[in-house]
Specification:
Number of strands: 13
Distance between the termini: 45 Å
Radius of gyration: 21 Å
Number of helices: 17
CATH superfamily of the largest domain: NAD(P)-binding Rossmann-like Domain
Structural class: alpha/beta
Strand order of the largest sheet: 5-4-1-6-7-8-13
CATH class of the largest domain: Alpha Beta
Shape: globular
Oligomer: single chain
Length: 442
Amino acid sequence: MSGTASPHDNQIAPAQGKLGVMIPGMGAVATTLIAGVVAVRRGLAQPVGSLTQMDTLKMGETTVPVKEAVPLAALDDLVFTGWDIFGGNLYDAARTAQVLDPWQLESIKPFLESIEPMPAVFDQHYVKRLNGKTVKTGRNKCDLANQIRNDIAAFKQKTDRQVMIWCGSTEIFLKETDVHQTLAAFERGMVDNDPSISPSMLYAWAALKEGVPFANGAPNLTADIPALRELSQQMGAPICGKDFKTGQTLIKTVLAPALKARSLGLNGWYSTNILGNRDGEVLDDPESFKTKEESKLGVLEYILEPEKHPELYRDIFHKVRINYYPPRGDNKEGWDSIDLFGWLGYPMQLKVDFLCRDSILAAPLALDLCLFLDLAQRTPSLKHAGVQDWLSFYFKAPDVKDSGRPEHDLFLQAAKLKSTLRQILANPTAAIVEEEAEFAEA
């Protein structure tokens, strides 16, 4: 009977059919993600670093693997496509990225060769250090965004559900302007080629307009503007934070809560990175670095709350540096020098040197976000909620609803994520209720 609600409307819809993963920017992170998923499917490797594939969830008195407790899409059901400015297939892109060993790429070469990215929307004004080779052209930004929509529509013919995750380079620093405040203003701005509308925003608009959830792995101002939050809620296409929390910031969101928990004071925190991949090259431009710097600097202030603990954290000197060093490639080094003080004000120091692999850390985060955003869209209480702040665990710059205070503490973020999973499994239609962090389970 028309207009009558089905009992299934009050349940999490099953993950049936193929989940299409659409990626703007098919470079190091994207190729590492896709190659990794294929390797795991074939039993050649383990999905280490992925909460959805490796972690557990406490359900009452029992503990169950997340992928068994939660109705997530299976890795066998993932289908990949995307856009890139350099041309060539994904095997070529993966060899250029030099993240994975050649022998590992050879074992899945035919699959990677079968995926050739589509021409991308790109403007060098927003990423100064790159030159696009396969780039869309159009009358204006609205035309370009609608070309992306056409690409999405074509992919919908091959898949049952879709998500989009930005794995492109960091764009220049942009501040919110009038064009970002409402959807109507934003769409007029696309027609007028407003310079405050970047390519990543065009991808986000196109995805959300097509009802496709969107995640941002870079620190660009993108979906975290009022206009696109409005569109996200309107179309039932979830969004979340930005900038994958991988190396140095991951460590920072572990150590800072420890200092705060023990009421240890902090005078300064100096962080520097060296990396030689394309991300490092892009961030060598001051305008792109400014975007990344804003994302990385906010962490300590939010965790330590100096306004509540002025005697411990009032005068912190926090410095962040990123240095492009080509010999290091994707193997990033994050070095932290921390000046703290304890009982009676006596000084101490803590040094951390994290020799990490940038894309190896980012790829499982991208996988989890794709699976969780798809879950959110299939969950009645989450579909039209817009910002999914329970996914803060994955980001340097978490986004929250209604301009609330973001959570940066990794353990509180993990507890919130698992608490949300338990709540939607128990009652898919109920509003998410904030619970006190359960550290034992997080």
